[in-house]
Amino acid sequence: MNPGLPGTGIGGLFYILVALLMPLCEIRRRLKGEAPGRGTLVAKQFAIALGVVAATTGVFWDWTRCSRSTRSRRTSRAWTP
Q1: From CA 8, how far away is CA 42, in angstroms rounded?
Q2: pLDDT tens figures, 39-62
Q3: Burial group, residue 61, by CB count within 10 angstroms (0-12, 13-18, 19+)
Q4: How many domains does the chain have?
Q5: Residue 9 in 3-state DSSP?
Q6: What is the dihedral of CA 63, 64, 70, 73, to 10 degrees?
Q7: Does residue 1 form part of some domain?
Q8: Residue 60, domain member (yes or no)
Q9: Which of 2, 4, 22, 24 sees the fewest Cβ atoms within 10 Å?
Q10: Which are the contacts of 43, defined by CB distance < 8 A and separation ≥ 6?
């Protein structure tokens, strides 16, 4: 098993996709008049999915920013034997 960022595998991507689409399905159900009552569950799952997306985006954004600053420091110094 390879370690990695939670939520970035195929299962995590499926969860994020489904959780982000849940509010649309719930709105459709309420407009049809079907049994409502899952609004809090939908809101919680949607918030978790947004948190995973935000955390993953933040990690990749920070990682690229740090790697650029490290790379620019390494290349700005003159090499002397």
Answers
A1: 21
A2: 899 999 999 999 988 988 888 787
A3: exposed
A4: 1
A5: coil
A6: -150
A7: no
A8: yes
A9: 2
A10: 23
